[in-house]
Amino acid sequence: MYELDHIVHFVDKPEDLVDETKKIGLHTVLGGKHEMWGTYNSLCYFGLTYIEFIGVFDEALLEKSAAIPYTLHESYKKRHYKNGFTRLAFRTSTIEEDAVRLLKEGYEVDGPQHFSRVRPDGSIVKWQLLHFGKKDVEVDFPFLIQWEGTDEERFDELVKLGTIGEHPLGNLKIKEITYSVKDESVAQDWARVFGLETEENKNAITLFLPNCHITFKKSDENEIADVLIAGAKVEKDVVIEEATYKIRQ
Fold it and tell me: CB–CB of 248/230 below 8 Å?
């Protein structure tokens, strides 16, 4: 089973998003540095699903990472380093088996690889990543992540650290992510790879993850168009560095 783990949103200065999102009514905290990639982040959690506001502190390291096919950093480079929504990550508990299956299905696979980073409080968080894909796909597949420890253990730890906290705007959750795509067949590709149920409407196909919907709408673009956050006391549309968040009740 796959779930939405996080949305990667590139910004100029992740540290600025702590105060910027507070004005909107969102709880965001400083994350940490990815010393191996030249990036750092701040994090806005909705349960165990979150938005990663990510920035660059070492362009040379980022370039080195971007040379590896199907990585997040390659996706950012292909977007000409444009800030905004860049990629999704799906959470899995079977990352080794996923790698074997995807390879058998004809995808190029990188990983799984083990990573870690130091939190601001000095504790260490560990995870594995699996990147995969095929040449010339319209939209990069989500990369897969498997965290150390159970979901319950991670949730409790993140609450104790204050990483997961209450949003002044309400009891929020990420409900739907909408992509604009030139060819809706990308939705069928994702559904097949991840074993997801689909629903077709006029000019749109929706995929159903256990914790989120992903809708692909036909357009002249090929990017994440917006993110719908539900459960708010006040409705508003917010644009943060080229990315649109639709906040609804």
Answer: yes
What is the C-alpha separation between 179 and 176, in angstroms, rounded? 10
Closest residue by Cα to residue 189 from 137, 130, 143 = 137
DSSP state of 78: H
Amino acid code (one letter) for 125: V
CA atoms within 13 A on the CB side of 244: 13
Q: What is the mean pLDDT of each run of 10 residues along the chain (249 residues)?
A: 97 98 97 92 98 98 95 96 97 98 97 87 89 92 96 95 96 97 92 97 94 94 92 97 96
82, 242 Cβ separation under 8 angstroms: yes
How far apart CA 169 and CA 45 sit, in angstroms, is: 13
pLDDT at 168: 97
Give the CA distances from residue 24 to residues 46, 120, 134, 232, in Å, rounded to whole numbers and listed in that order. Answer: 15, 24, 39, 11
